[in-house]
Amino acid sequence: MDWKSAELVVETLWDGKLCLLQRPEVFLSIMRLEAASTLPHKMAAQFCGGPEFSPHKIAVQCRAFKTTRLIISRLLQSIGNIVIAVIKKSNSVRLLCGFFLTSLAAQRLIVFMFDISECTVRIARPEDKAGLIEISRHIWGGHDYLPLIVDRWVAEPWFYVCEYRQKVIACLKLSRFPDHVLWFEGLRVHKDFQGKGVAKLMNSEMMHLARRLKAEDPQLSFEFCTYYKNLESLALTAKLGSVRADAFFNLEKRGVHRAERPEFISEPDTSIFANYPTYLPLNWHAVHSRPESLEYICEHAELFKTPNSIYLVGKVGEPCITFLHPPGKHLKEDLPYFQYFFGARKHISVTLSPLFRSYLAQMYSMNFYFWGEDREEVLNMLVFTLP
């Protein structure tokens, strides 16, 4: 089955002329295409068992090779052979599996034959929630904050999704922050459609909208925050002329057994900006360190006091404790108050000013660490502006 034959399968499948119950060998070919898409192009043709799978033709579908992907790909092909054998021999199984196989084939072929010109970028609707949650299951190891905030974002202006053949495959949010800031956040692309230009399309559409809004407010600036190893996002925004404006240390540690409710402070003042002269982080958001931001901070964050210090935590998205002052000698006593915002024994996430670099050794002694495989000591929470 070559690439043109695969296109024919798509056309006939969508026209209702092809039934996998009658042509189970097509299912095997689809399984081979699925396997090929996960292998490096130099191996794909040999693995799929025929020269018709040209490396040049499937290279666009191939991703970086990993041992686990190779194992999964071979297992997938083996399962395909077994399923076909069972279908051929059992009418009852054929009836039970038929609709499932047809649906699976259609879904996989939609991905293989993806055409970005058929994508539509539109305002998110309440009925998009299930698709958005599906996208989030494969973001940050399944710990994405999107499910926690999706209802709120759908109710707010400027939350957009990308729809492809009646399926939501991406999203991006624009939010108004104080001091004339338009904040870009929540860019997500379904794992099956990553690397196909969808993120670029979303950024392009949002920049068109942002420039229209700036025409109404010439003082408007475009800003966003991202992880320092979010290479795709960094590359895309670099092409748009992004400039790094600030950066912070973000660390984690395992949760503690006990949680204590801290004392909350209702009216913050400009003293909270003392160690954050340019931006103040609120979880993975950041606002300008100016008096104009105080009202927004009161609404979107909580200032709290422990027996040893004062901290800040945002209300939107995944919690992250901002250290307003350098870590003290009695930091261990404050951990139960941190735990209050994360739930019993869940990991604690904290943000430190770059001015606190000399205190990182103390944080390590408390078992805080930089997340990621290499646990590199680096300013890993980056804030950018766009022209």
Q: Mind explaining what this structure looks like?
A:
This protein has 387 residues and is α+β, with helices and mostly antiparallel strands. It is globular, with a radius of gyration of 25 Å. The chain folds into three domains: 3-113, no CATH class; 118-219, 3-Layer(aba) Sandwich (Aminopeptidase), CATH 3.40.630; 245-386. The strands form two sheets. It has a twelve-stranded mixed β-sheet with strand order 1-2-3-4-5-14-6-13-12-11-10-7, sandwiched between helices. A two-stranded antiparallel sheet has the order 8-9. Helix 1 (3-14) packs across helix 6 and helix 2 packs parallel to helix 6. Residues 1-24 and 34-66 have low confidence and may be disordered. The longest helix is centred in the N-terminal third of the chain and has 23 residues, at 67-89. It has 13 helices and 14 strands.
Pick out its properties:
Aminopeptidase, single chain, 12-stranded mixed beta sheet, two-stranded antiparallel sheet, alpha+beta
Topology:
Blueprint: H1 3-14, H2 24-36, H3 41-47, H4 55-58, H5 67-89, H6 91-112, E1 119-123, H7 129-136, H8 146-155, E2 159-164, E3 167-177, E4 181-189, H9 198-216, E5 221-227, H10 231-239, E6 243-253, E7 263-265, E8 279-282, E9 285-288, H11 294-300, E10 301-305, E11 310-314, E12 321-323, H12 331-339, E13 348-352, H13 360-365, E14 381-386
Helix pairs in contact: 1-6, 2-5, 2-6, 5-6, 7-8
